Amino acid sequence: MNKTLSPSFWWAISDTWVMAKRSIMHIIRSLDQVASLILFPVMFMLLNRYVLGGAIHTGNIDYANYLFAGILVQTLAFGANTTTINIAADLKEGIVDRFRSLPMANSALVTGHIAADLVRNIISGIIIIAIGFAVGFRPNADFREWLMVIGLALLFTLAISWLSAILGLVVKSLEAAQWMGFVVIFPLTFISSAFVPTSTMPAGLRAFAVNQPLTHVINALRSWLVGTPMGDNAWLAVVWCIAIIIISVPLTTWLFKRRASR
Amino acid sequence: MSSDDAISVKGLYKSYGDLKVLRGIDFNVKRGTVLALLGPNGAGKTTTIRILSTLLAPDSGQALVNGYDVVKQDGEARGSIGLTGQYAAVDGYLTGEENLFMIGRLYRLSKAEATSRTQELLKQFDLVKASKRVVKTYSGGMRRRLDLAMSLIASPPIIFLDEPTTGLDPRSRLAMWGMIEKLVQGGTTILLTTQYMDEADRLANEIVVIDDGQVIAEGTADQLKAKVGADRLELTISEKSDFAAAQKALASKQLKSDLERRILSLATKAGVGELKQMLQRLEAAKIEVESIELRRPTLDDVFLSLTGHGATKTKAKGAKK
Q: Using CA of residue B51, residue B166, residue B164, residue A110, what is the dihedral sign?
């Protein structure tokens, strides 16, 4: 029998792949979940574009173009909420005990969910871009800028997925996991440059909005996509994402051990 | 631990805050045998299994599984065990086949091995027809069968079964017993927990009775039954009015009386000789006996006499130790 007992690096990769395949099967077998996840950003895009958009002044840039980067980031953030829900769901079932009693890498359960999140967010990213085009989004990005957009979007997905994993390990119930997404993602996206320019916000709120990571990510994406000024946003966005990942990974491992061994 | 022990447990303690769940558990399981942990709800059975399957660290004490310390060599220990918990640990979104293959790969079987073991187990557990269906659509019995199959996929030498038949209908229960017996014939060591005396009686070579986190008795089913007092002779006296006289005629400390049902019962060793003597005494006292029954003690009797009170906890057994 093929049993390498000290889990080597390659086995950890293999375990993560097996677990990611499991999570991806979950996506395929519950497409309604993906649909409902993308429903919110689509709704927001349409409401903002057609209901509020006329009253929002974004300078010399068309609102449909302004809005898109914000909607894209919101989509990715909602997508990551699935990690919170799925980890909370796994912990509720006996299946986590089964996984933990196997000679597999313990981290694979969480990393598998996160890998699946990447896949899910790529799918919903493509859908939201298509819908964006349909409502008047006209980017002027060249090939290199598109690559930067894709790269940052994936890095941001990783960062927010790890954060969502922490939430999934902390919440006590599935309902809480579901609400956690809204309670965290709504304020974070609204108090940012996602839907309106931060310059119109009251001072205190603006101070938070301009300095929080979502704003940097949104501004950087917007700059690449439609040519708004970049400033320091690109490198700040990357630093924020990497910092979040560096802190979240060990924290997740620690929380998982603590949570599961009760 | 002698080398023919597959599992060795010594002085296991575990508390959750003030709640002492395990208060010093010891037992050994010989290779290729079945040991049943018998006890009521909350006795500490599941906690013991969780410690042995490396899911939970004990506060103190040592547990060796296949020779590996479950705390210091948890990876090696996990490679030697299969766990079937109280609730079917299956993935509802995957098919039966996918579930088995996934667990096989996580046990680090090669793809070819995982595939062939999956097909073998689907056949063995009568799940071939349902193999392409998502598990959400399975019945309770099917989920349990799949669950057990999943813990067997890497043919581990030791299997833990935590209340394997709780919640199963009688037919599924019998089928599960049959599968467990087959495993033992194949040389697997099994540690199972149960609340059912008949289950322990039928499956286990050795029974460890635990209550309130302590071992209160251990031995084979026969040894445990012998502890309660061997067979009992039950005499039903014809007339209630004769009952007191009958008690006097038999005059024994061990005599148990049940006036309501007119039954006198007495532990007996030899049987026939003793029976003759008793009947002669009753005849001499002109007391008529309606019926005679020789009752062998069941494990339920054992349990009742050991814990004092069936499945409900009493304070008495602390003193018994």
A: negative
Cβ-Cβ pairs closer than 8 A, A with B, add up to 88
Closest residue of B to A108, CA-based?
Answer: B106
What is the identity of the amino acid at A197?
P
Domain boundaries, chain A: 12-260
Each domain of chain B, given as residue ranges in start order, spans 5-80+156-226, 230-295
- Radius of gyration over alpha carbons of chain B, in Å? 24
Residues 6+ apart with CB under 8 A from A113: A19, A20, A23, A83, A86, A87, A161, A165, A168
Domain B230-295 belongs to what architecture?
2-Layer Sandwich (3.30)
Question: B5-80+156-226 belongs to which homologous superfamily?
Answer: P-loop containing nucleotide triphosphate hydrolases (3.40.50.300)
> Is this model's pTM higher than 0.95 or not?
no
| Cβ B317 vs Cβ B211: under 8 Å | yes
Gap from B88 CA to chain A (nearest CA, Å): 7
Q: What would you measure as the largest C-alpha separation in chain A, in angstroms? A: 68
Query: Taking CB atoms and an 8 Å limit, are B106 and A102 in contact across chains?
Result: yes
Measured distance CA(A65)–CA(B77) in Å, rounded: 58
What is the structure's pLDDT at B271?
63
Under the banding of pLDDT at 50, 70 and 90, the label for residue B270 is low
Q: Using CA atoms, how far apart are residues B74 and A5, in angstroms rounded to an integer?
A: 10
